[in-house]
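Posting for a labmate who doesn't have an account.
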Amino acid sequence: MKQKGYFLSIGAGINQVPLISAAINLGYTVIAVDQNDRAPGLGLASLRILESVTEYRKILKTASELPLQGRIVGVGTRSYGKATYTTSYIADKMKLRYAPLSSVEICSDKNLLKATAEKVGILVPESLDLHSAISKTQFPFVLKPARGNSKEGIHTFYHPEEWEHHLKSKKKLPRPKTSSKKKTSPNITEKEDWIAEEYVPGFEITVCGLVQNKEFFTASISHKDVTSYAPYLEIAHTLPFLHPELVGEILLNCRALVAATKMNNCPFVAEFRINPLGEIFLIEAVPEVGGEFLADYLIPNYFGTRYFENLVRLLTGETLKPFDLYSEVPKKYAGVFFSAPPEGKSKLVEHSSFQTLGKEKLIFDQKWKQPGEVLRTNDGNSVRTRGVALLGPEQNNQSLEEWKTSVYKRLEGKFESI
């Protein structure tokens, strides 16, 4: 296959491998960046830059000085947060494709994102003033970091007594772990560390897609389940989406959000909460691939479409192939499920002996924690102990909720409270 040019991968960890592999399969020579010399993606790449993905200036300098037999035609990342800033910065300096820094900044700050969404008529949870007394009628409400990710530090207060106790115990609102006094990248300033907003009841969904030439292409709309306790660890993403009557409005919101934030030539993932009245509230949106194995396993195994090859086409200026099947509802279920520890602090005793049933097909089964490890749910999604992905049974055999309940029971590990 004739080499088309070089693709710069910001990161080479295990989650980056699908992006690197897709670039190689499409005929690009990969330059991979990672500070870990044992990162699995480095073994696939033709050229390696041993550097932290946050060191955008050093990466740009090194990449610019490489003796290449051609030019770098694309840059991308599977990671999030600071890696996204680095990718955007390098894309700007090298005249490549990715979301502009201004767009990344809006999406990285929940206050900015909410304000931007409200201007174009997208519903968002009502914000509460943390510097004045919160009335009894405003409970329950959610407190979360303005720049947090991976569910770290989220609390829900159902009664005034809980909030008063929290204030007394903290004396002042704590700084989120993800905050930093240093600038992450050019033009980034620190704003309010914490935000409070109304609690919106209902169910959650995740929308994955790509933006090319300001047009939004949907890859999937999936259901998302979280734990009943804060910080609402994600425990399942399932297909198909069972409310086709809402698809039109969901996509209108996504297109409006893309235009308002000026996202372009980048991946897109958003989370919405739909209340009992069918009203759709934006929770989060970022120019990222998103985690949770949706793009890696669920989309290709359920719909048969290749997300990462399309992403590479997008980032290198090729025309992507629309995900035509995203709105179809095959007569089977699929899902990525996670084992989460009980609320608070606990120790993993053992994993379950997970078994498939009937016509289920196991796509992957990964154990991330070892027996004896201490887990604190306030640390967010990183405390989940295991993940499995399944193609499920035919829909006429049982409901989606019945199937999910069955998987949860089989996946649940054994924990000891501390």
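Reply:
Got it, the structure tokens are right above this. The two ends are 57 Å apart (CA to CA).
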